[in-house]
């Protein structure tokens, strides 16, 4: 496709160009972040013009989820499209808000994470609105706020309890049908010692030395244990000590040291249980070495593990084949909104979108032009397939 010629471009690319020009940086990361307001206005305008029903749900002041519906009389076979409108900060990215085509790529903040997906989903909704006979069941698109920080947009959407039979979450999966992803447990661990003048260290108890024992245990014992366990789609669980802070002054034995740990879970692991076992293990194994620990929970997130026989997975495979794309199933290591849909509402969910997570959040964010076109056609085909597949097989 000749992307140089505006009129030749796939409609999803033109939507994506518009979206890249709209700054929607999550204000949590950046005081200059404008949030999702302008994106929501843009999407609402388009959808209203297409004759779609649009509802706003305020999550934070000036930051609304948009819920877009196409009802064709099959509410029990509703397919949910979900993608977030916020991006990470513009950072040092040059021309972050200017869509630039180069070498088969489209550059711009959010091109990959996740405006490319959202543009494709909007395209599918607009096509079905123009020709409702295309839709195999009812369609709902949730364009959500705040995914990059705390998933608050999706959580608010779930409180509405709109019946949904299956969901596709738009994130960069390189056009792989993603049925599994890792979850995580994040905790802060503090060791407690006793301060003393550094000229008399025997009077004190160094919290940094205690923490050294904790880190050694994590690195030498826990890491190899985790590496020995493998999930067929997601690989091994991992554990990373991401930060360390300890001591106040060079001539004082430190009485406090803190690390933050990021433990990634594979499907089958439950965050509460992993957290409990991790803490209990550290306490049990290290008490004899004089380690005194306290723990603060920072974040728990579920892994995604959608059964391969779920109708959404079957429909996705059929839709992918139908537009000439691979129907392979895959896992990814990063988390997104899908596991919340699955865990909190029991909605079988997949993740699918153009581009690679390796380009997300970088200062040269881009998405392959052909991925955007193909993802858009996949979403449209999924909208056609999902309700019908249930009817045929039911
Ligand atoms: Zn994302």
TrEMBL record:
Q: Which InterPro entries match?
A: ArgE/DapE_CS, Bact_exopeptidase_dim_dom, Peptidase_M20, Peptidase_M20_dimer, Peptidase_M20A
Show the PROSITE patterns listed in the entry.
ARGE_DAPE_CPG2_1 (PS00758)
Peptidase M20 dimerisation domain residues: 179-287
Q: Name one GO molecular function term.
A: hydrolase activity
Identify the SUPFAM superfamilies for this entry.
Bacterial exopeptidase dimerisation domain (SSF55031), Zn-dependent exopeptidases (SSF53187)
The portions of this protein that span the membrane are: none
Q: Which UniProt keywords apply?
A: Hydrolase, Metal-binding, Zinc
The cofactor named in the record is: Zn(2+)
Keyword Transcription found = no
Protein name listed in UniProt: M20 family metallopeptidase
Q: What's the source species' lineage?
A: Bacteria, Bacillati, Bacillota, Bacilli, Bacillales
